[in-house]
């Protein structure tokens, strides 16, 4: 076999305004470019404590069971679901987006019997429908998505849905992958039992170590399971021996990723979590103003608009692939197309973390306006940029 001829790594410097990853602050990259230590080194054990404290701050929780799961957001998702769901449990899941469907798949693989609460793609769940689903099915666990990445939809009444579940003695699992660090979230005050997220979105850290938090009720259920979970790597009873007081070996933690996550969370804390929520709302609101001034439509209604992921309807007569390709080739901007039921119908524009800056949304609105105008869509790029600027 011939020796591979592989050149030097030189990735392009994109403006990342898709559904993730977002651009990373230079401080985070610097933290990941430091000396490596062992995952049981006393120095790293101290770092573990700091990361857990920082995660509690961002989740707004005092949960002891708060840790970064080794892997991307889907790993923390599977850790939460596969540990909490036991064979025979009835799990209520939403049908209003791609990631609600992923919850359903994971719950079924864990042995759960799934039932659905329905809502159209692009609309939040209705509390009345959730109540009716509980009355009919009496589920043991209710999973839903606070920020549905596939549709740009925010679930506005999280605490109300949690209260419905608790009134039926059910536990809740809330997907906060596209909301943690960018949208208002109060795990303790809202009574959320399990919440999982990802590092590469509003936290602006390269993927590889993903936040997860569980309260005592959830961990009591996990620790009293009659059967072992159908995963070894993500077994939270085993992981807690590593991330808890014992610090006993389970697997080799991604040390460099956790260094990066620590620095990214430090940046969040320095900004202040409430100011960070407000920044995302302000900058993304300006983007929304520019989009609408261009004559384009948002996919979600205003009371369910998700600031961190703007879903924009593709105008008639334009192919979404053309828009995406030209943004990358001519402007070095990355956004994304729709998924599932909305494939080919929407553009997904992220406004998250270090990417959620005024210069980025102004640049995107200008570029998108020029492309659509060139493709024959009746838009006014100048008006769109002016509206974005005024909102900022």
UniProtKB/TrEMBL annotation:
Its cofactor is pyridoxal 5'-phosphate. GO terms for molecular function: alanine-glyoxylate transaminase activity; L-serine-pyruvate transaminase activity. It comes from the Archaea. Residues 35-338 form the Aminotransferase class V domain. Keywords: Aminotransferase, Pyridoxal phosphate, Transferase. One of its GO terms (biological process) is glycine biosynthetic process, by transamination of glyoxylate. Pfam families: Aminotran_5 (PF00266). Residues 1-22 are annotated as: Disordered. Belongs to the class-V pyridoxal-phosphate-dependent aminotransferase family. This is Alanine--glyoxylate aminotransferase family protein. The lineage of its organism: Archaea, Methanobacteriati, Methanobacteriota, Stenosarchaea group, Halobacteria.
């Amino acid at each position: 076999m011939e020796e591979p001829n592989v050149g030097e790594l030189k990735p392009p410097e994109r403006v990342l305004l898709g559904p993730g990853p977002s651009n990373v602050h230079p401080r985070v990259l610097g933290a990941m470019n430091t000396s490596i230590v062992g995952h049981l080194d006393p120095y790293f054990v101290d770092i573990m404590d700091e990361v857990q404290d920082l995660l509690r701050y961002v989740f707004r929780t005092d949960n002891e069971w708060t840790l970064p799961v080794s892997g991307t957001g889907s790993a923390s998702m599977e850790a939460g679901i596969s540990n909490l769901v036991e064979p025979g449990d009835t799990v209520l899941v939403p049908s209003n987006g791609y990631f609600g469907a992923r919850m359903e798949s994971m719950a079924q693989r864990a042995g759960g019997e799934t039932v659905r609460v329905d809502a159209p793609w692009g609309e939040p769940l209705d509390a009345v429908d959730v109540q009716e689903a509980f009355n009919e099915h009496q589920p043991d666990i209710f999973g839903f998505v606070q920020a549905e990445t596939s549709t740009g939809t925010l679930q506005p009444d999280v605490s109300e849905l949690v209260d419905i579940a608790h009134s039926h003695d059910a536990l809740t699992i809330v997907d906060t992958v596209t909301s943690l660090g960018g949208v208002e979230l109060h795990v303790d005050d809202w009574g959320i039992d399990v919440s999982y997220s990802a590092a590469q979105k509003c936290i602006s850290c390269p993927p590889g170590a993903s936040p997860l938090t569980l309260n005592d009720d959830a961990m009591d259920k996990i620790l009293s399971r009659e059967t072992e979970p159908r995963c070894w790597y993500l077994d939270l009873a085993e992981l807690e021996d590593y991330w808890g007081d014992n610090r006993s070996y389970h697997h080799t933690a991604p040390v460099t990723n956790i260094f990066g996550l620590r620095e990214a969370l430090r940046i969040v804390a320095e900004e202040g979590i409430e100011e960070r929520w407000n920044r995302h709302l302000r900058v993304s609101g300006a983007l929304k103003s520019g989009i609408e001034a261009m004559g384009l439509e948002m996919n979600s209604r205003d009371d369910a608009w998700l600031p961190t992921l703007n879903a924009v309807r593709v105008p008639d007569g334009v192919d979404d692939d053309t828009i995406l390709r030209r943004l990358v080739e001519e402007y070095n901007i990355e956004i994304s197309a729709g998924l599932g039921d909305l494939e080919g119908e929407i553009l997904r524009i992220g406004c998250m973390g270090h990417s959620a800056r005024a210069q980025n949304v102004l640049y995107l609105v200008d570029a998108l306006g020029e492309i659509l105008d060139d493709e024959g869509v009746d838009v006014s790029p100048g008006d769109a940029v002016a509206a974005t600027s005024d909102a900022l």
